[in-house]
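User:
Note these tokens:
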Amino acid sequence: MTAIEVQHLVKRFGGFTAVGDVSFAVPAGQVAAVLGPNGAGKTTTIEILEGFLAPSQGSVRVLGVDPRRRGAAGRAWRARIGLVLQSTSLDLQLTVAEAVSLYAGLFPRPMAPGEVIEMIGLGADTGTRIGALSGGQRRRVDLGLAVIGRPEVLFLDEPTTGLDPEARRALWGIIQSLVAGGTTVLLTTHYIEEAQRLADRVIVLADGRLIADASPDQLRAHGATPVIRYLLPASAPVADLPVALAGHVDPARHELLMKSADLTADLGTLVSWARHHHVDLTGLEIAPPSLEDAYLSLTAGPGDPDRARAEPEKVSYRG
């Protein structure tokens, strides 16, 4: 079953095109992360999927329904989704328990308020006013209110921005438990580690265009080069390293560290040198390209040396 479907989506604001001919689909039960620089069209796309904005062209469906649908059918659809926006306007005078109980009354089959409070880790703060909570605790409340209606699809717009690493990881754990229960998640984020940790696939937007739709591993394999790392023994004749390797030695650390565009050739050169000079290559590491490297290569600006790799081929999801 397809939970989210976007077909040839275009959104214009006057003469400015924020989203241009974007198409993708998210199967039920999957986590899709939408990445992109500021102004890429991420929030505009997610606000159209949430029903806050209407497309200029194209169509979107969430759980088979147009998000702009009105009347009883529209209300029934909204009860099946959950939203965590970039910012919220909760009544700061409400306690955690009061806010969760209030929202529970808005849904036909809500989770028990106590269950939600325990899930978001605020069992010791049920009587605390929201205004007295830390930023991380307020974000947990936001997530609790978004899931109390047992959503089939959960939209998360930069849910962990501004949180410290501990609070961010706590929210990741909550999101992962929801996904394990069958919830489909579409999130926007600026944190590459967040996408790597949570997402089954990554959708990359730039200048309102879709430039990649792939699993994290597929994106890493496509968009960047692997790294050769080798801590040279003190006795190694570094002065005799081949030219192809010599420029990649950090003299302070006595370490070879290079991004390899031709791994087979570069390893062959290193092995030949080591064999000739009787150098033990124990400890040699070949690290796969990081998701961050792949993302940066895809979204490189016009003056960046990696721009050429961003243009020719759109990375497509298979799996």
Summary: Residues 82 and 146 are 5 Å apart (CA to CA). The domain at 2-80+151-221 is CATH 3.40.50.300 (Rossmann fold). The chain is about 35% helix and 25% strand.
